[in-house]
Amino acid sequence: GASYGNRTQIIQYLENSGIMVQCFGNGWKMGRVCQEEMIRIFNSSKISLNFGASLTLTTNQVKARTFEIPACGTFMLTSASPNLENFFVIGKEIEVFYNNDDLINKINYFLTHNKEREQIAMAGYIRVHLEHTYSRRLAKIFSAIESRMSQT
């Protein structure tokens, strides 16, 4: 994701704490990558970080990346966002962090607890493929529209 908001400060905090981080997207040293490269990066990462901040909103949000990371079978550690629990079971299918210290603690924990990290990643993968593919989400949207149209 792009380097905006407080992302640069968070990454600097991680690096200052001895955590190796590679960032991709506009404004980062590594720059943007194509979708195929993004998938390769997710698949080769033990932990993929996700930040729900927006340029325009004051609260975090659930974005496409929230589904793309687990869809690749990768463990996702994401900032807490409203309604995230409507899509995933926190701690079972994905993991969230609430502040920088929590982020560091969870990175260190999951880097040393491979089996637990891999179980969460697999559960997230299954959840996304069962409920959150574009075709499934669109089918729900069209079904809701059809239901409303038949009520009028």
What does this structure look like?
50% of the residues lie in helices and 7% in strands. It is mainly alpha-helical and 152 residues long. Strands 1-2-3 form a three-stranded parallel sheet, sandwiched between helices. The chain is globular and about 60 Å long. The mean pLDDT is 91.
- Individual helix count: 6
Mean model confidence by pLDDT: 91
Inertia-based shape: globular
Helix content: 40-55%
Structural class: mainly alpha
Largest sheet features:
3 strands, parallel
Radius of gyration: 17 Å
Give the end-to-end Cα distance, rounded to a whole number of Å.
42 Å
Strand composition percent: 5-15%
Topology record:
Layout: H1 7-16, H2 35-44, E1 48-50, H3 65-71, E2 76-79, E3 95-97, H4 100-112, H5 114-131, H6 134-151
Parallel strand pairs: 1-2, 2-3
List keywords for this structure.
mainly alpha; single chain
Summarize the structure.
50% of the residues lie in helices and 7% in strands.
